[in-house]
Specification:
There is one protein chain. This protein is mainly alpha-helical and about 270 residues long. It is built from 10 helices and 6 strands, in the order H-H-H-H-H-H-H-H-E-E-E-E-H-H-E-E. The protein folds into 2 domains: about 110 residues, no CATH class; about 120 residues, no CATH class. The longest helix is centred in the first third of the chain and has 15 residues. About 30% of the residues are buried. Bound molecules: protoporphyrin IX containing FE. The site of protoporphyrin IX containing FE has 21 residues, from helix 5 and helix 10.
């Protein structure tokens, strides 16, 4: 966990060009916001009466205004300068569609960057611990790491679902969906669809044509960080696998209480280096 949480947050800190001293703060915000249904993380539990007063904030989290303020301060410092980090570009450039980001767009976009995707390497490691024969295959043949990366993403489904609102009447899988209906897309279920995947409950690091829906699919909202997340996972395992002589679970693996993210709080391991 020290590695997996730290790695993705370091990448994020570089993208934002903020000092590494802020890493823990970024991790804590992500936990407090995404963990809004877990008593260990949430300031105010999502469905409590108290959360009503935060209903207009992302994830109804009192941590959201703290993240907004942090982002706004970075924006103030960088407006009109020539930085190449993502905040500088957001405040100094106009998107290709010619529509500048509003102040609210900036707040929400910044918050999404901070909370998005710092989980998956934990899942990949856990999957390998539970399937030592798959780890052995990777050690024998590291050229499988790219296909393993896609399989880890399918297997873990780190984001369980998103909800969207239908913009027109449509029939899908024999069901009528009316314009304005709220539709929940269960990526975790799609990733175990036996009509798409052979033996969907098997972890297979060499799986081919792995058409998973982990980052959403066919949507203008396809995960913006998907290439980054894929690259992080691939590099992590390219570096890690050759160094491992042995790795074992060394304790319980508590999960985040959530129907939104498949979160792991702790992953204690015992490692023997090669
Ligand atoms: C394995 C890690 C990740 C998973 C599983 C994941 C999953 C998702 C999913 C399911 C969506 C919604 C897609 C849709 O509605 O069609 C999404 C959107 C998004 N993700 Fe990720 N994500 C990950 C990592 C990241 C990272 C590392 C970043 C950025 C640093 C990121 C930034 C975003 C943004 C900005 C959106 C919104 C895009 C939009 O609304 O246009 N994600 N992600």
């Amino acid at each position: 966990m020290e590695i997996s949480a730290d790695f993705s947050i370091n990448v994020l800190a570089r993208l934002l060009d903020v000092p590494p001293e802020d890493n823990q703060q970024l991790i804590d915000w992500g936990n407090r916001i995404i963990g809004n249904t877990d008593p260990d993380y949430a300031d105010v539990l999502l469905h409590s009466a108290e959360s009503e007063q935060y209903r207009d904030l992302p994830f109804r989290s009192p941590a959201s205004p703290e993240v907004f303020e942090y982002g706004r301060e970075l924006a103030r410092q960088r407006r009109g300068k020539d930085g190449t980090d993502i905040v500088s570009r957001l405040v100094n450039e106009t998107p290709r569609d010619g529509v500048p980001l509003s102040a609210q767009d900036f707040d929400n976009y910044f918050l999404l960057l901070v909370v998005a995707g710092n989980e998956t390497t934990r899942h990949a490691m856990l999957a390998l611990l539970q399937h030592p024969e798959q780890l052995a295959r990777l050690k024998d043949d590291p050229s499988l790491i790219p296909s393993a990366t896609e399989e880890f993403l399918r297997w873990a489904s780190p984001v369980y679902h998103f909800r969207r609102t239908a913009t027109l009447d449509v029939e899908l899988g024999g069901r009528r969906i009316k314009e304005g209906d709220k539709v929940v897309m269960w990526y975790a279920s799609g990733n175990r669809d036996e009509a798409v995947f052979d033996n969907p409950y098997d972890l297979d690091v060499a799986r081919e044509n792995n058409d998973h829906v982990t980052f959403g699919k066919g949507s203008p909202h396809l995960c913006l960080g998907n290439l980054l997340a894929r690259t992080e996972i691939r590099i992590m395992f390219e570096e890690l696998v050759p160094r491992l002589a042995d790795i074992k679970l060394a304790g319980d693996v508590p999960r985040v209480r959530s129907n939104f993210v498949n979160g792991i709080k702790k992953l204690p391991v015992e490692v023997t280096l090669a």
